[in-house]
Amino acid sequence: MASTSAPRGAVAGVVTTAGRDLAAGGFADLAGTPMTTATAFDIASVSKVAATTTVILRLVSRGDLDFDDPVERFLPGTPCAAGTTVRHLLQHRAGLWEWQPLYLDREHLDPADAIDAVPLRYGLDEGRHYSDLGFMLLGRIIAVVTGTPLDAAVRELVTAPSGSPAPGTVRSPGLWRPPASVTRPNVGWSRRASRTRSSRPTATSPGVRARSPEA
Fold it and tell me: Is the Cβ–Cβ distance between 129 and 98 less than 8 Å?
């Protein structure tokens, strides 16, 4: 991969072996660190499209997965209703909670078990309700189909073929756990979330108090 240097704050470009041009410009932080094509960012929920959805599309295009495959084929024991498909998860129509503080669950050692312990909030296909939990399930489906973690699947199926720089670890905030010594309910990203979501409990599950997002 050949690269070109650029002055502070200017646009830097590279030409990849795949023949695609990549460019970066501006500053990476308030301190004025110049942006480069190697600058890494936490893209948060944009990873739903840039990573998870794109990998699902690749798997469908090569015949390893179908949009109408039932979730239970890959992940038995989830809270999804019978007949829930990959398509329902992609369209946020599976009836799952929009968001849950899974990192506060001390009962389930496996974060996936914490997700599966949260009951549905809506009926299947009852409406479109943007759901972080649904995309966490899609990430797990990708791991089952490819036999690799989500970040490895993104490298193999998305960034490597496009000639883009390899991403860092793809991690959902909902699967992050604070150290056992942390007891305050709002830590890390949850402090930000608490300002935009109501903390009124509307449902319960073992180890997790279900919380309603802001209407």
Answer: yes
Please tell me the predicted confidence (pLDDT) of residue 40. 81
Pairing of strands 208-211, 201-205: antiparallel
**One-letter identity of residue 160:** A
Residue 73, token pair as written in the block: 């084929």
Q: Is the separation of the CB atoms in 139 and 52 below 8 Å?
A: yes
CA distance 32 to 23: 18
DSSP code at position 175: G
Q: Which two tokens stand for residue 13?
A: 């470009």
Instruction: Identify whether 5 is a catalytic site residue.
Output: no
Mean predicted confidence (pLDDT) in 7-22: 56
- Work out the pLDDT band at 167, boundaries 50, 70, 90: low
209, containing H or E segment: strand 208-211
Q: Which one of the listed residues 3, 5, 45, 199 is annotated catalytic?
A: 45
